[in-house]
Write a structure and sequence with these properties.
17 helices; 13 strands; 11% strand
Length: 492
Amino acid sequence: MELDNILDFLDSKTILITGATGFLAKIFVEKILRVQPNVKRLYLLVRATDAKSALQRFNKEAVAKDLFNVLKEKHGANLQCFLSEKVTPVAGDITYENLGVKDSGLIEEMWGNIDVVVNVAATTNFDERYDSALALNTFGAKNVLNFASKCAKIKLLLHVSTAYVSGETPGLILETPYQLGNALNGAHGLDINTEKNIIEEKLKELSYDETATDKSITLAMKDLGIERANKFGWPNTYVFTKALGEMILGHMKGDMPLVILRPTIITSTYKEPFPGWIEGIRTLDSLAVGYGKGQLSCFLGDPESVIDVIPADMVVNAMIATMVAHANQPSCETIYHIGSSISNPLKYKSIQQSGYNYFSKHPWINKEGKPVIVGQVKVLNSMASFQRYFSLRYLLPLQGLQVANLALCHALNGTYSSLKRKTNFVLRLVELYKPYLFSKSFYDDMNAEKLRQLVRANGVEASMFYFDPKIIKWDVYFEHTHIPGAVKYVFK
């Protein structure tokens, strides 16, 4: 493997990015526009009804954000002119053939000019409706591959997956592909078309049920996803359908140069375009929000377990470096784990301590204008201890409330239903997050390390396309970058 000059590679290139208004894709777009203004064109696939709506959505959900402040300062009043020359938002949807692009002239133009396709479009909800998740994460990946194969100048398909396609497998997880039909637990019968048929049958069955509501149908489809994922050894619908997406790409790619990038838990930017930019409540931040606002009476998780996290700008730099390293390599399929559990492991207890340190010095101000005082909360280091705690604190009182409600002729129906709904919600969340809170997996990053060495050898570009987690001091990063960023951009 060799690595040409990265900026030279990006010069005059045309790149298609799917899921272009998502968290990671926006950082990718901003980075390329900032460091290589001579890129020829970025086609940005956006879910929208038409080109005008796609442009409006890109401006509202990307350009208007603080993320683009450095570009705004660089170009000033000329920013929109620069963007109109370099960026084409395209109305489309990867769940459809030809990515849902309706303009035949635009399709031909894209097929004639695109050099690299970067697929970042996905649903990342752990318990997404199974029909939605399979359409986006699995068949969507197939549609992107089919589109890329029609591009006359195609040099690479870069597909962003997740390290957690390995499920709850303990130990060292290698950077190797998953074969079509191979279940994590060895179960027989894993077939992507069969899964599609099961979904269609379930939806037909639900359509015949006159008592079914939109809410009950959604819940049934969520439950079906978890059930099918568990049957084949995956903990949730998200990682199951992402694994199926990887399988279908590997099976159907032919001579297409393919890179599959598997990031771990993605956190706020480490350095660029500025430290601490983040969007949406991500895996760890739901805990930070609850703790900072005083809503968390306990932490669930093994304090000694390693939580694999990686800042978003490092993921983007790795994406760009892999494009350059593997362009025009026919028949290649290369997997990259982009994470920290091998190179710079972070323990769960370190995050807890950083949260306490930050919120002790910078307490959240509540709606009444009063600071929320945080303390060292109770740590439940096993599922057994959580179940005991939850039973005593919530399930027993709930049973008592149920008895009282019956005795009072259902006068407490509202109170009982509300508490029952909240307890069910917590139990569902715990079940979804359990694999990450008690993780015993370590993600081999040998391929990523080889690529880092090549980037370092490129001299001046090493500081521009950094993605080595060894440079991060985790306590400093969480207390001075990530948590302040989450407070600014995520806390409401």
